[in-house]
From TrEMBL:
The keyword Mitochondrion does not apply. Gene3D superfamilies: NCX, central ion-binding region. This is Sodium/calcium exchanger protein. It comes from Halorussus limi. It is found in: Membrane. InterPro entries: NaCa_Exmemb, NCX_ion-bd_dom_sf.
Length: 132
């Protein structure tokens, strides 16, 4: 699978971190999304939220931490200047909105906005950091 992804990177002249975010990132999130959807269907919103929050804490910290512990690696400027700030700002905004404006609720409309923000993230990344 990795050789196919490397071929796509060369073919489309995209950066490896961008392809990783879109393809591998989405594929890695599918098990968590499945667990969340199952928890929502079973009317267990706390399990759903715990899964989302937990995975968003564990995945980057453990992934980056293990990678750094095993070997030194280069972090592209796009990750530092766009990816991480975007995640921090949207996470803080979501937290503030959910806690202080909506009394702890996240509605379908707001969920749709979050999906839209994903596309804003991808398009912004492609426009601001082509080839990274």
């Amino acid at each position: 699978m990795l050789s196919i992804i490397e071929g796509v990177i060369d073919l489309l002249a995209l950066g490896g971190s961008m392809v990783g975010i879109v393809t591998i990132g989405v594929a890695a999130a599918l098990p968590e999304l499945t667990a969340v959807m199952d928890a929502i269907r079973r009317r267990s919103p706390n399990v759903a939220l715990g899964t989302l929050v937990g995975s968003n804490i564990v995945n980057p910290l453990v992934g980056i931490g293990l990678g750094g512990a095993i070997s030194t690696y280069y972090v592209p400027s796009a990750v530092i200047l766009w990816d991480l700030p975007f995640k921090l700002v949207t996470g803080a905004g979501l937290l503030g909105w959910t806690l202080y404006v909506n009394d702890g609720e996240l509605t379908r409309t707001e969920g749709s906005y979050l999906l839209g923000l994903y596309f804003v993230f991808v398009v912004g990344r492609l426009l601001l950091f082509p080839g990274q």
